[in-house]
Amino acid sequence: MKIKMGRSFGEGAAVFLIGLGILLLLPSQVEKPLVSEVQIPPYFLPMVVAIGFMLTGAGMAISSISAKALEFPFTKVEALRIFYSIGLLFLYSFLFSRIGFVVSSSLILGIFAYLFGARNWVKIFLTMALVPGTIWFLLEFIFSIPLPRGLLF
To answer: Is pTM beyond 0.70 here?
Structure first.
């Protein structure tokens, strides 16, 4: 079976509108704490995500004007990858609160990398160590957002 994948203007507009909706709902949905250790407001990260959605949607809509549809075969391997990915996300949600952010994220990240074709073990292990470690450091120490504690942290 072949699937035609072209970027449509509607997809870009939908992503843009999702970002706009998030941005408009932020003031009413995010509660400001009375006392805060950091100067960053609690709606900062959702605002960055909303702006990212809006920029991505605008880029998709603009690029769809001149884009041509690409055809690629959809094989059994791709279907299995999708099935395994859904299972891995459920596993991650189960492991996240039990063994902590760093260990569960490293494990799932390594499995995803291998599942989607990465075979250089040095790069996989570096990614498994650096990406969750960096995110943990930023969230815990820079933004003061606590993550579930686990085996290592």
So the answer is: no
